[in-house]
Amino acid sequence: MTDATTIAERYIAIWNEADTERRRALIAEAWTEACSYIDPMMRADDREQIHALVTAAHERFPGFRFSLITDGDRHGDNLRFSWGFGPVDAEPMIKGTDFAILEGDRLKSVHGFIDQLPAAA
Question: In the chain, what are the domains?
Answer without folding.
Answer: 4-116 (3.10.450.50)
